[in-house]
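Q: Could you write out the predicted structure for this multi-component system? I'm mainly interested in how the pieces pack against one another.
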Amino acid sequence: MSSRERITKTMLWALVGVLAVVTVARFTRGLGAVTNLSDAAPWGLWIAFDVMAGVALAAGGFTLAAAVYIFRLERYRRFTRPAILTAFLGYVAVAVGLLYDLGLPWHIWHPLIYPQPHSVLFEVAMCVMLYLTVLALEFSPVMLEHPWFDRPGFRTAHRLLKRATIPLVIAGIMLSTLHQSSLGSLFLITPYRLHPLWYSPIIWVLFLVSAVGVGLMMVTLESYFSAWLFGHRLPREELAGLGGAASVVLLLYAGLRLGDLAWRHALGPALALSPAAALFWFELALSALVPGVLLAVPAVRRSRRGLGLSALMAVLGVIGYRFDVSIVAFARPAGAAYVPTWMELAVSAGIVSGALLVFIFFVEHLCVYPEAHAAPAPARAPRLDPFGVRPILPEALAAPRRYSLALVAGAAAALGFLPGAGALTGRPTPVPVSPVRMVEGAITTVGAASGHRFALVQTAALSGAETRRVWLMVIDGNRDGRLVVFPHDLHEQALGGDGSCVTCHHANLPFQRDTACAACHRDMYSHTDIFDHDAHTAALGGNAGCVRCHVNRDGPKTRATAIPCVDCHAGMELAGSRVRPELRLSGDAVGYVDAMHGLCVGCHEQRVKEEPAKHPADFARCRNCHRDVDGGALERLAPYRSVHGAAAGVRLGG
Amino acid sequence: MTAKAILTDTTRCTGCEKCVTACKQVNGLGPDQPRRWKLRIDDLSATRFTTIVRHDGQFVRQQCRHCVEPACVSACLVGAMRKLPEGPVVYDGDRCMGCRYCMMACPFEIPRYDWAAAVPYVRKCTLCAPRLAEGRIPACVEACPEQATIFGDRDALLAEARRRIRATPARYVPHVYGEDDVGGTSVLMISSVPLDFLAAGKVTDQPLPELTWAALSKVPPLALGVGGLMAGVFWITGRRMKLQAERLDREAPGGPDAAAGHGPDHESDQ
């Protein structure tokens, strides 16, 4: 084994190690924790790359099988085994990728028992399932050639499979034609969401033709890869033939794509100066126009560099086409972006690495390259391997250990990068509550039926006999500018003056007498645990102090069985509050929004019910307090703008 | 059972969100939480099947439109989405694979996913199908204090919608949203402002499943055609090679033995 081979394999094993760790996160934490998928981008990297592009890149299998077995272009026979192996491993990778992407992967077999034949995806699923079987059968003779299988039962199977080659090849071509095209048909149902430059009634033809072209290019790249890795000779003459065929197919694809737009008089957006048009031309040039034209020149397709570069462009370009259709050119609400997380990238890279390792394994142990296999491997002189542990370990131990080390190192690296448990469980991002602000304002009573008018700071607009200056409380816990202006003094008066504080202020923190709402309700939306167990343990003398609160020595020591806080902190809980007793002092403070709504709305509703005549019509409606519900950013800040003496006053019921 | 529907008149909506609260109660949905996959906390989400959006000074209630020929139903490969004869489009999590093609296919971008869950399901309005089965009306309709959203036979509601537009033409856009859009929907809307923003684009009256069926119905002939073509080509190439081998046989000086390797021997390798 060359050191190039060894280093490549070590790197692939490291990527598989990363995959292993991300796999655990994916299946324990869920899609939301691992991916950047969202309601705005339901399909992401795993569909675009692992499925859409993966299937297209594996098209070389059926294309080469058709060329060699059906059209009997014998000179390409050398490519069939690697092409079919690549296709088989490619489709296995597609299936594995799907297992990561599906929300309920253990239901992946459901199309078999709940068929819904009106769904394009059903047809794709069935074809891929069947084609995977066909590919396994097509490739299994290569496996059965191995001396280990030289036994009676396997010999019979080998003979039968060889006899079935032609029917299998024809079935493979049928299935491939169907699902390669149907992957495009998937998007026929999204005429409003897929950009007009990509949406087309013949998108299924475009997918099929581009897949055939890129399949040939992929076989080419795969030859370059094995030539680089295993030191095989590059079959230049045959590759040039493949390049010529690919040139025709890719140019046909480009022609169909442009011709379709022209035929439907939809070329307009492509000729406009827009990001979409730029992307369209870039993708089309990369996938088809440039490689198609380059490969049409015999000198280019016969040159090692020209052919390799063209094949690389076509492969990247067609991957780009699949990406554009399923992600980039697919409509999302304004402001919603999709960029895959490193974990999504790690899964895609890990699956490809795994497939490559299996490919290398098969090449090493089976006759995948017949002509290379026939020739005895050139004897290599032993030489120093600077990357390995081989020099210090016995041969039998050194080789496998290196890969385990790579796997473990990759896994450890992945663990190091995995975000903390909080982010992985998909918990909401904390939104801490900022304290209320007291602002000087003015108030005008309009009348019982319409309530009061308020203005923040001072304003000439509110001059009048009934206007007086007050302190107003501005409630904006998350500081997003959507304010509630709360006349604290008015509430105090209405609720009965000095003794009325407890109506709302139901609890104080220990040693405080004026605890603000936000002191306990510290998060806008989430519950906050306001009981500090550690502080209590420390203050009460460590383990000896347990029984001070957990008075039942034998029973379970939970929060529910502990004594209430007020047994020690007499001043914390205040009698006579409107806050429902069952919600009090459990150590669990509900989110700020829920706390505010729970307190204000209930009281307002009760007032309207009890004394309808004394309150404005919308006294218990949202708009009574939320005067500025999303009326645009400037309008929301209208209370502040009145500083400049504008006529705007905020009216509140009171 | 006749097809039922909801008619929402945005000009009557005050944005009180009682429908949202009622929906959350009936469906047992938790509080809305800010997630990185949500643009705004009051967007539709796995915990919010209906919501009120402000558009052009109007309150517009957003919910599943329960299309007459739903794209999601046609897209679902395991039949987890179903259209009931009385109107609702309902979802069966026991069948779902979680491929999310329904979310891609919906022209109104309605189905949401429970991204936070390790076992996620598609979540969306059911038109209160379980309540309809009990003979009750949808919770959102029941909760609406302004009768801005009402429930009844689809035909009757269509007539009512047209009557309202005729009675006060100045108040409404002269279009009953959902009458024929994407083949008609079971949630009808009338409004003083255009509601095209609710869909991903300017929708036509063509039902979306027709678009894919046009391609899908070609599958059997395509499959047979390709299979037949390949078998034909195989036979022709084989025959040509055989004839060529015979010709070489005749021309070869060494007789038949010398050309033995030229036959159409597809089993020679693999």
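A: Regarding packing and overall arrangement: Residues 203-230 of chain A form the longest helix (28 residues).
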